[in-house]
Design a protein that fits this description.
By secondary structure, the chain is an alpha+beta fold. It has one helix and seven strands.
Length: 75
């Protein structure tokens, strides 16, 4: 994520989750306020607003989130 005078934005390389479907992916491109996400597992590309707020369709996956997800897979 990047924060500047205009707000907070997702950036290339961020691992994100789509809030309504729980699908995860990596942001592989950002252009003009839009980010392109390649979904894990399917390699399908979807695009979203790059701006981070409570109404955003995607959310950043933190290292803690990833550790929790991995522990569920191993169980």
């Amino acid at each position: 994520m990047e924060t500047n005078q205009d707000g907070t934005y997702f950036q290339v390389g961020d691992h994100v989750r789509i809030k309504n479907t729980q699908e995860t992916g990596i942001i592989n491109a950002a252009d003009g306020g839009v980010v392109y996400v390649i979904l894990d597992g399917t390699n399908e590309t979807k695009y979203f607003s790059a701006y981070v707020d409570d109404d955003a369709y995607i959310e950043l996956i933190t290292q803690e989130d990833e550790a929790t997800m991995l522990s569920r897979v191993k169980a």
